[in-house]
UniProtKB/TrEMBL annotation:
<dbReference type="Pfam" id="PF03016">
    <property type="entry name" value="Exostosin_GT47"/>
</dbReference>
<keyword id="KW-0808">Transferase</keyword>
<dbReference type="GO" id="GO:0016757">
    <property type="term" value="F:glycosyltransferase activity"/>
</dbReference>
<keyword id="KW-0735">Signal-anchor</keyword>
<feature type="domain" description="Exostosin GT47">
    <location>
        <begin position="147"/>
        <end position="430"/>
    </location>
</feature>
<keyword id="KW-0812">Transmembrane</keyword>
<dbReference type="InterPro" id="IPR040911">
    <property type="entry name" value="Exostosin_GT47"/>
</dbReference>
<dbReference type="InterPro" id="IPR004263">
    <property type="entry name" value="Exostosin"/>
</dbReference>
<comment type="similarity">
    <text>Belongs to the glycosyltransferase 47 family.</text>
</comment>
<dbReference type="GO" id="GO:0000139">
    <property type="term" value="C:Golgi membrane"/>
</dbReference>
<keyword id="KW-0333">Golgi apparatus</keyword>
<keyword id="KW-0328">Glycosyltransferase</keyword>
<protein>
    <recommendedName>
        <fullName>Exostosin GT47 domain-containing protein</fullName>
    </recommendedName>
</protein>
Amino acid sequence: MDIPRTYPFPPILTLILLSFVVVVVLRQVQLLQFTTIAGSKHGHSVPLDRLRMKLSGQNQLHAIANSGELRRNKFSHRTATRKVGKLEQTLAAARASMRNAASESEGERSNLTVATTVHDGGDRNYVPAGAIYRNARLFHRSYLEMEKIFKVYVYPDGELPIAHDGPCKDIYSIEGRFLHEMEHGAGRFRTNDPNAAHVYFLPFSVTWMVKYLYTPLSYNVTPLKHFVSDYVKVISTRHPFWNRTHGADHFMLACHDWAPHASQGNHFLYNTSIRVMCNANTSEGFNPRKDVSLPEIHLYGGEVSPKLLSPQSNNITRRYLAFFSGGLHGPIRPILLHHWKNQDGDIRVFEYLPKDLDYYSFMLNSKFCLCPSGHEVASPRIVEAIYAECVPVILSKYYVLPFSDVLQWEAFSVQVDVSDIPRLKDILSAISEDEYRKLKEGVKAVRKHFTLNRPSKRFDVFHMILHSIWLRRLNIELR
Ligand SMILES: *[C@@H]1O[C@H](CO)[C@@H](O)[C@H](O)[C@H]1NC(C)=O
Ligand SMILES: *[C@@H]1O[C@H](CO)[C@@H](O)[C@H](O)[C@H]1NC(C)=O
Ligand SMILES: *[C@@H]1O[C@H](CO)[C@@H](O)[C@H](O)[C@H]1NC(C)=O
Ligand SMILES: *[C@@H]1O[C@H](CO)[C@@H](O)[C@H](O)[C@H]1NC(C)=O
Ligand SMILES: *[C@@H]1O[C@H](CO)[C@@H](O)[C@H](O)[C@H]1NC(C)=O
């Protein structure tokens, strides 16, 4: 990426100016007040504004990048060093632009322009605004910067079926959908020149590892770890990029429950790389400062149910206060079912829905949809509820909600502590009509960020995932 064309200075002067901006201007900006979510009930999350604060100067997130070990691996090749320097400059400029966005007034924002190469019939001029964002202006700027410069290199190594493919149906479908979009769509974000990339994608599927390498009922995940270990060995031997940062600018993406186990196959992948996973359980090693929470989207037969696609008319009356149906998995659902199964006409809680009843009709007819964790923290119900415009009620522990670095989940969902499950009806009934209307408006507004499109569209789930990766990448510096 070049320095913007409008820049009237030669590169050296630009550099001096940039360092001046970094040292003098940004120091001040850092002192500005940003919305803080300290005390948020949503477990762990790193909001965009807090990430921001860490952008400049010392590398706090990836201490490894400064370790002596890394210095030994430092570039010896001059041209390559220069290239990295240039990439880092464009990232520094993006960080600076984001800091400025945080201090601008609303009026100034309207002048932001969409990169001229963006083609998307639908939402070319979408401007994030409203309560669903932690800081809409900062997110908008960050997103536009991403569109302008962000480049991903997909390693060509590895073979089908486990590499370069993933499931596009059923509960882990986001794995395949992301991978295919990255490899075959998403032209603007992909580069074939690894020296021009900001991040490197390891395009394997943990779901396919389980399908092809795992012995059913053996509960032995060693073959998965071996695959991952071998894959990293191959790319780190054939290409210079992994060793340069010990994988800090590399990412994997997987929705399968065992993704964290598989990632243990390489010590640095686990502890240093960006792991994009549905299983975002902080007490199982998910680290929100470097890892990304991936929404689970259940595509029966590969598509979203047409019932969920037809938008609800606003004034339809929803007959039930709340709905849940699902198996008795994991630590939270037994509590929910114990207290509410067949207990109350307003809170419709089923273990398995009788054959003559329709799951989505219940969602469409309920004001709130209960989304308890199962065996793992993530639940496809959250996205289904959003599609059905049914306000999600999050019942989980240790779960980092998807995109919580930019989205204000409080504006479109309700978080109920597991210990408050017995009081569920009181809690939901106490939400006034007015509050409920706002939550529902929030759900409608946030839907676009959870929507899968083929090909992908601006601000949809694919782009939100990329944006989460972009934010993690902004936090590291190669030195
Ligand atoms: C935005 O545009 C308005 C009118 O076109 C102009 O007055 C204002 O100075 C611009 N703001 C910035 C930051 O460029
Ligand atoms: C990266 O490091 C590993 C282990 O130290 C080494 O085997 C490999 O050859 C290195 N890769 C490159 C491209 O130098
Ligand atoms: C991650 O780092 C911790 C602390 O250094 C270490 O104990 C752990 O074994 C590492 N995890 C993996 C999977 O290598
Ligand atoms: C419900 O909404 C539709 C369109 O959204 C409108 O035509 C209709 O009049 C509304 N009905 C009531 C009872 O408000
Ligand atoms: C999250 O991880 C902890 C620690 O391993 C585990 O006890 C808990 O059951 C997990 N949560 C879910 C919903 O799987």
